[in-house]
Specification:
Helices cover 28% and strands 37% of the residues. By secondary structure, it is an alpha+beta fold. The protein has one domain: Cyclic Phosphodiesterase, Chain: A. It is globular and about 45 Å long.
């Protein structure tokens, strides 16, 4: 099964991402149901490994946090494939991603070795489908874009099914993050 671990952003917070998508007006817009920030892409994995990962992720204890987004960039290397809004640097987000990677390692799932750049993909680009001038104009329009801060209260394990019209993402399980209440802290 093709899978990934991510922060789902397809709920009420999606409106801000959809507004930015509309402002960018380039490429094929990512559907609202696919808006997420990937913590780890797992590629194809057997179900028994995903079950073991699920058990590890259930035991992961990590604090809830706020996350902001600022600016846009192109992703995909030499062959630009996506326009995305960038997550602002956040040590708690980086710690969560590192904790997820440790869970992957414990169950024997190899993760990508390339540098992790937290982002939310807004649109997909076809090779040669957009002129460099149009892409640069979109980046300029999004240079000062800001979203959030958003409350991140959980992350999820997703299945990704490839179809001729694009990937279809389905949440397999949600993993709540610890709020002050369930960490044993009390107000005052």
């Amino acid at each position: 099964m093709r899978a990934f671990v991510a922060i789902d952003l397809s709920g009420p917070e999606a409106d801000a991402f959809l507004d930015l998508q509309e402002r960018m007006a380039v490429g094929r817009a990512v559907p609202v149901s696919n808006l997420h920030l990937t913590l780890a892409f797992l590629d194809e994995q057997p179900e028994d490994l995903l079950q073991a990962l699920h058990e590890e992720l259930e035991d992961l204890r990590h604090p809830a946090f706020e996350l902001g987004f600022k600016g846009v960039d192109l992703f995909g290397g030499v062959r630009t494939r996506a326009l995305a809004v960038l997550a602002e640097p956040d040590p708690v987000l980086r710690d969560l991603q590192a904790a997820v990677k440790r869970c992957l390692h414990r169950v024997g799932i190899a993760s990508a070795s390339r540098r992790w750049r937290p982002h939310v993909t807004l649109s997909r680009l076809k090779d040669g489908g957009q002129s460099p001038e149009r892409l640069q104009a979109a980046i300029s329009r999004g240079a000062t874009a800001q979203i959030g801060p958003l409350d991140v209260m959980q992350f999820s394990l997703f299945r990704s099914t490839l179809t001729p019209s694009g990937a279809v993402h389905e949440v397999l399980c949600d993993y709540p993050l610890l709020s002050f209440e369930n960490e044993g802290f009390e107000d005052g």
